[in-house]
Amino acid sequence: MLKFVGRRVLWLIPVMLGAIFIVFAINAIDPGDPVSALLGGSYTQEQYDDKKIELGLDKPFIVRYAGYVKDIVTDGDFGTSYTTKRPVSTELVERFGVTFKVAVISILIAIVLGLPFGIISAVKQYSIADNAVTIISLVFASMPGFWLALMLMLAFALNIKIFPASGIEGWKSWVLPCLASGLSFIATITRMTRSSMLDVVRQDYIRTARAKGLDERTVIVKHGVRNALIPIITTIGFQFGILVSGSVIVETIFSLPGLGTLMMTAINNRDYPVIEGCVIIMAALICVINLLVDLVYGFVDPQIMEQMKGSKKARRARHKTMGAHAL
Amino acid sequence: MKMNWKSMALVCMLVVMMVFTSACGSSSEKGGGGGTPGGGDTGESPDKTLTVGTLDAADTFDPTVNSSSGLGLSLVYDTILYRDPESGEIKSDLAETWEFSDPTTVVLNIREGIKFSNGDDLTPEDVMFSMQRFTTVNTQFDPGYANIDYDKSTIEGNKITLKLIEPNPDFLLGLCNDRWACVVDKKYVESTEAEAFWDKPVGTGAYTCVENVAGSHATFAKKSDYWGTAPESETITINYYPELTTMMVDYENNVLDIALDIGESEYNNAENGSYADTEIKILPAYDILSVALPQYMECFKDIKVRRAVAMALDVEAINKAVYGTLGTTADSILIKGIEFYKSIGINKYDPEQAKKLLAEAGYSENELELLMLFPSMPTNDKASAIVQAQLAEIGIKLNVDSGDFATVIPRLMNNECELAISGTGGGTYFASTIFSLIDKSSTNASIRINDDEFNKLVEEGNTSLDTAVRAEAYGKAQQWMYDNYWNIPISYPNTATLYHSNVDNVKGIAARAMDLKFVTFK
Known about the structure:
CATH class of the domain at 94-310 in chain A: Mainly Alpha
Number of domains of chain B: 2
Shape of chain A: flat
Strand content of chain A: under 5%
Oligomer: heterodimer
Structural class of chain B: alpha+beta
Largest sheet of chain A: none
Distance between the termini of chain B: 62 Å
Largest interface: A-B, 67 and 66 residues
Radius of gyration of chain A: 24 Å
């Protein structure tokens, strides 16, 4: 198990190097110029050249890339923001918590609501409940995120006045941003749970479980949901990545100082060190989430756990039908 | 006790719903409002907390680097001199007395007994150091301090004698600026890292910075031992908003006492009474929107073509479409409200005459094709679309291209723009500054005018210490611009600020340069 985790962590190194290289390359070929952005619309060639040297942009691409990686590895130094003159690591630490908090709460809302809705929908297929859940899911899934966020703000911050429209202090501040992020994912998780559960409940082992006289709750929860979880977990991991990387809309509307708004501002200003820092943090977070998702697979499915442990028994079991272990 | 799956699902849903509906506890919004203006709950402001909303981004409190607004700077720092925003009169601040002893010598007497927020004494060396920092830390941005000969300037006791390389009659006004004239603690700056300016700035101002949360807010606490008139607000919080809607919701919910620079649509809403208990303050943005004809374009060397372009533009219609009720149609290249502004006249709109002039210049219909290139922003986008349509009426094909600042500026500097939209960016208070953007010293060729007569007039206005001579020279320069059509003024934008009636004395030279320390509570 540890070997598996260790191997996956080692994989992070080339992934991160690749991510840094790609963002460096994009910055290099991007038509925007950070020196011009900093100097504004009026500067002399001498001032331009001085600023370019000051920012280190006069050096060749590969030298900058190697220097950047070296600074991160040896000193944990992500550079200094061109605009605020603050260490990028300080800005990332300040902002990461906000984005992470919104993403985690949003995904929890989506799981807590989406999973039961999906199960009810599958178990009661074509019932009124199923149709209601399907319609509600489609409505939320088809709403643009910014519109939903604005509507929530107008309803709950302006009209009913029970939640603030902005800010990061107190639990109330998090409700609207997390709802705005989470509601559309409820639809995704509900639809995925429904479809996965429908596959599972038609399997022979479910019929067998019922034939053995198990009560319906045990059949659905222990044998049904557990076997349906793998694609749902994959979706949740994927959605978490989307929530983190797509946080800019919710952060802008609710005025949250998160990674999304930091990155957006940095892109507009061509603040390369900040852009690179944000990409590294997001890439690392998505890698970690993928690793966690893989580990959760193992806990849900003993066959996968055995594969992670690398046993011969597991390799043999690999060919057996999914879900047979449940019986 | 066993629960069936339905019950579990129901309990889960109920728990989540309870979280969302049991929302009657204490509020702790950004910047700490709390239901009523000033943050109190009773309609009064017992703690005298002032909360202000702005669309500016949080920035460092290093005066040489700060590029957003002077709001926080004016709380933390005092300036060398002070200019009354209403009367325009120069008054003492850290410098008790000031005088031009000759055209290139300025004598300042710095007050004694003033302390920085860290306990250090203010010295004349701090004042000199603060000016000189602009020539070393940020060489691109020069408020006139590069014109000081620091080797020949002297300090004797509290007296600073500044030797200017060239006469600069606007020098004293520069010493009043809410950013350029901030005085920093030399000892502190030399002993700390640049990042200390972010949330631990040290100044002599009425407030100290308690926190500066990037992308959210900055909070300032009143200093008990401030040397000047003690302000009323115990705490001032500046909330930074990336989105106007959010700011206005917070204003309407009384989280904010003041909402700065709200834009035309919200101004109209306020005028129509959409915001209860509200006063409106209109101030000039000290900006000008104009259409500039680059001198490097061969076609514009013929005054008939320039005149045709000018006559094709209905500037009143453009002003109305771009700024609506918050715009004033421009009638000079200088901004209305600044010293030496002279009303020359609104550009004449006559498309028929424009067509004739274009034909006389030898251009047939659609023969002249130009590229308008500009940084994308709502005002530029709107103005360019109308200019495009109006030029099309006289047979000039205008291609419009825009992008973000970082992408467009290098192209502008590369002379790719064939018809420019220009502005000062706001906060331009001096005639010399406006002319420096367009005269021979301008680094932007698309708006630079290199004409002997014009440059001579501007130079005379920039350097003479005689106000009457300056007024005449600048007046002629404005007339010259009107007669030669190199730059067609369109609009002077104004800004609107809303504030609840619990506060008073909301004043400043511009919306984003409000001097918040003067705000009082009713």
